[in-house]
Amino acid sequence: MSKTRLIVSMITFLSAVAVDAATVTFDFNADTAGKATAFTDSVSGLSATFSSSGDPGGFVVSPTFFQSLTGNVLLDPGPTGLNNLSLTIQFSAPQASIFLSFATNSAAGVPLNLGAFNGATPVGSSSASGTIAPGFSFPEGVIAFSGGVFNRVVLSSGALDFAIDNLTVTDAVPEPGSVVLSSGALGVVAFFAYRRRVHRN
C-alpha cells in the first residue's frame, strides 16, 4: 500500500470512529411493576425523568401485553385512572436523536406525536401510526426524531391511552475518546502536510 493510501485510510478510520456517539436505551425492565410517574431512571450516566399531565400517577410501569413492546412498558392510565394524557421525558444531557416503540389504545391510523425541545425552544417534531398485528388488539409502531439537539420530548396522541418501550437516544456531545481520536486524525493530517512542505524546500 502506498504512503498516500495509508494516510487516507488512517484518516478515514479515525474520522469514522470519532463521529460515533453514545446510545442509551431505557426499557423499564429494571423498574418495579406499579412504579408511577413522575420518576427518574438512569442508564450509563444519562438520566431521564418521566412525567405526565396527570401526575402524580398518570403513567405506570407494567408488564407488557403487546407484541413488539417487551418486558416492562410505561403506559397510561396509571393509578389516577386518567386518559388522554401527554408524557414528558426530560434528559440530563443534550441528545441528537430518539427512537422508541409504542402502542396506542385506538383504531389503526391514530398517530403518536413527538415534540422535541431544547429548554423551552421547539426543535422539531414527528408523528407515526401503528399497525395491529394478527392476534393482538392495539396498533403498535415506532417513532423517531433527529435533526436538532434537544433535552426534552413530549409525547401525545388522539388515542385514549398509549404505551412506550425501548426508548433509545443518541448523545449530542462527543465522548472524550471521540474528541481524542478527532484530534489524532487532525494531527496525522498536519504532520504529513508539514513533512511534504519540508521535503519540497
Summarize the structure.
The protein folds into 2 domains: 1-21 and 174-201; 22-173, Jelly Rolls. 20% of the residues lie in helices and 42% in strands. The protein has helices spanning 3-18, 176-200, and strands spanning 23-26, 39-43, 46-52, 60-63, 72-75, 87-104, 112-118, 121-128, 140-157, 162-171.
| Rg over alpha carbons | 22 Å
Shape: globular
* Ends distance: 26 Å
Q: Which consecutive residue ranges, at least 5 long each, have pLDDT under 50? A: 1-19, 177-183, 188-194
Helix content: 10-25%
Alpha plus pi helix count: 2
* CATH class membership of the largest domain: Mainly Beta
> What is the CATH-assigned architecture of the largest domain?
Sandwich
Order of helices and strands: HEEEEEEEEEEH
Structure commentary:
It is a single chain. The protein is α+β, with helices and mostly antiparallel strands and 201 residues long. Helices cover 20% and strands 42% of the residues. It is built from two helices and ten strands. Strands 1, 2, 3, 4, 5, 6, 7, 8, 9 and 10 form a ten-stranded antiparallel sheet that branches. Helix 1 packs antiparallel against helix 2. The longest helix has 25 residues. It is globular. The N terminus is likely disordered.
List the helices and strands and how they pair.
Layout: H1 3-18, E1 23-26, E2 39-43, E3 46-52, E4 60-63, E5 72-75, E6 87-104, E7 112-118, E8 121-128, E9 140-157, E10 162-171, H2 176-200
Antiparallel strand pairs: 1-10, 2-3, 3-6, 4-5, 5-10, 6-9, 6-10, 7-8, 7-9
Helix pairs in contact: 1-2
